[in-house]
């Protein structure tokens, strides 16, 4: 059974837009789509027969978070699925990164997601049902050079989401973490500020940043397919929703490889690790 009211943050472009377009065409779905500026969701008007609410939402603005959630409940009576999709990137080596950029990214990717979730959770607890879908990334499991702070945000999303899932599993609330690899959205282009390395020790990484910038909108991942997969998971797997869903072959292959290597490392050092405890009595 399909859940009724969905909120999707960051529906102006990318995954959020594709999700909004698909949800707007589903039967029995109310959609709360959000964008930072007025007019950015007009593409939804053609599907609107009273089931779509367009809200202005910058997830770093608490008053807009509260208004969006209140308006959704006032209009549709429930919030069944929250998609914390809004996010951005930042490229730069750890030493050369602009910390204001890095902190702003944490404000959006982590604290914005936290704020939305804390506003919605009491409603879901009252309903005794709900699904929280949090956009992480393969970058929430595996790290590349020049993305240290982005990884920081997405590893944070992973940890926070996993913990919420444990706290809410007996309350009828489910959590699904989405972990895409490269997808054809605005993320690697306009949605990621870049600081090019200038120090000789780090110059080699400029190539990686440039190739990401130039590769924007040429990645393997198709956001329209991703949107369909996410909606189908909620429709068809409500009782066994995966906590983690890598999207894209690169993502799942990289995740498998990372965990294989991590497992080996933990096993190799097992005796050292356990030797840190007090002897068992
Ligand atoms: N594309 C990929 O390769 C990829 C891979 C892994 C994970 N992801 C994640 O997927 C999510 C969606 O990104 P995308 O790939 O679809 O990129 P996108 O096309 O750049 O879309 C990001 C959306 O987030 C919105 N946003 C940015 N800051 C916001 C804020 N403060 N408040 C509310 N909305 C805000 C943007 O709004 P504006 O249009 O106003 O800027 C935009 O609509 C992000 O969390 C990203 O980290 C993307």
What report would you give on this structure?
It comes from Limosilactobacillus albertensis. InterPro entries: NAD(P)-bd_dom_sf, SDR_fam, SDR_oxidoreductase. The protein has one domain: Rossmann fold, CATH 3.40.50.720. The protein is α/β, with parallel strands linked by helices and 281 residues long. The model has no long low-confidence stretch (mean pLDDT 97). The chain has helices spanning 14-24, 62-76, 99-127, 148-168, 206-215, 223-236, 249-268, 270-274, and strands at 5-8, 30-35, 52-56, 81-84, 89-91, 130-135, 173-180, 192-194, 244-247. Helix 1 crosses helix 6, helix 2 packs parallel to helix 3 (99-127) and helix 3 (99-127) packs parallel to helix 4. Residues 9-10, 12-16, 36, 57-60, 85-88, 108, 112, 135, 137, 180, 182-183, 185-187, 191, 219 line the site of NADP nicotinamide-adenine-dinucleotide phosphate.
Per DSSP, the total helix count is 8
C-alpha Rg (nearest Å): 20 Å
CATH topology: Rossmann fold
The distinct bound ligands, ions and cofactors come out as:
NADP nicotinamide-adenine-dinucleotide phosphate
Please report the first level of CATH classification, the CATH class. Answer: Alpha Beta
How would you classify the helix and strand content by structural class? Answer: alpha/beta
Look at the structure and give the mean pLDDT.
97
Sheet having the most strands: 7 strands, parallel
Strand content: 15-25%
H and E string: EHEEHEEHEHEEHHEHH
Number of distinct beta strands: 9
- Proportion of residues in helical segments: 40-55%
Write the CATH homologous superfamily.
Answer: NAD(P)-binding Rossmann-like Domain
Can you tell me the number of structural domains?
1
Name the overall outline: globular
């Amino acid at each position: 059974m399909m859940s009724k009211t969905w909120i999707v943050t960051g529906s102006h472009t990318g995954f959020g837009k594709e999700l909004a377009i698909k949800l707007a065409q589903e039967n029995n779905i109310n959609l709360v789509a959000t964008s930072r500026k007025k007019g950015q969701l007009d593409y939804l008007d053609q599907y609107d027969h009273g089931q779509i609410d367009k809200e202005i939402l910058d997830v770093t603005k608490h008053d807009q978070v509260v208004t969006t959630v209140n308006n959704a409940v006032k209009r549709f009576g429930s919030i069944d699925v929250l998609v914390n999709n809004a996010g951005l990137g930042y490229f730069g080596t750890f030493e050369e990164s602009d910390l204001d950029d890095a902190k702003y990214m944490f404000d959006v990717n982590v604290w914005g997601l936290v704020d939305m979730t804390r506003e919605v959770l009491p409603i879901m607890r009252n309903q005794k049902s709900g699904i929280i879908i949090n956009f992480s990334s393969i970058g929430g499991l595996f790290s590349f050079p020049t993305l240290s702070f982005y990884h920081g945000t997405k590893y944070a999303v992973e940890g926070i989401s996993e913990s919420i899932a444990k706290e809410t599993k007996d309350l009828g609330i489910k959590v699904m973490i989405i972990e895409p690899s490269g997808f054809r959205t605005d993320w690697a282009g306009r949605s990621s500020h870049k600081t090019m390395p200038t120090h000789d020790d780090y110059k080699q990484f400029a190539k990686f940043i440039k190739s990401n910038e130039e590769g924007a909108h040429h990645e393997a991942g198709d956001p329209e397919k991703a949107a369909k997969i996410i909606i189908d998971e909620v429709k068809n797997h409500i009782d066994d929703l995966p906590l983690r869903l890598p999207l894209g072959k690169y993502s799942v292959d990289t995740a498998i490889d990372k965990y294989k290597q991590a497992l080996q490392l933990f096993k190799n050092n097992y005796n050292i690790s356990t030797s840190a405890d007090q002897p068992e009595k």
